[in-house]
């Protein structure tokens, strides 16, 4: 391969790179990343909702909060609490 062929291939690569960057910019403006799941402890939920322990248990029992238990501690999905808070 001589120098002229190498320059030609480099020009092609640079054009392709520019096209890829434009595509990535276009995709980035259209794609929204899903929010990361945030799990809260009972205490964090109480602080977030500004409620007492009794109110927490009343809302937990009457609401549709998503929860999971890990290491003996219950965690509540913040998104499910937000849905109830908006109602």
Question: Briefly, what is this?
Answer:
With 87 residues, this protein is of the alpha+beta class. It has helices at residues 3-30, 42-49, 53-62, 78-86, and strands at 39-40, 67-70, 73-77. It contains four helices and three strands, in the order H-E-H-H-E-E-H.
Descriptive notes:
- The chain is an alpha+beta fold and 87 residues long.
- The chain folds into 2 domains: 1-32; 39-86.
- It has 4 helices and 3 strands, in the order αβααββα.
- It has helices at 3-30, 42-49, 53-62, 78-86; strands spanning 39-40, 67-70, 73-77.
- The chain has a 3-stranded antiparallel beta sheet.
- A hairpin with a 2-residue loop joins strand 2 (67-70) and strand 3.
- The longest helix is centred in the first third of the chain and has 28 residues, at 3-30.
- The radius of gyration is 26 Å and the shape is rod-shaped.
- It starts with a helix and ends with a helix.
- The model has no long low-confidence stretch (mean pLDDT 87).
Provide keyphrases for this structure.
alpha+beta, 3 strands, 87 residues, 63% helix, three-stranded antiparallel sheet
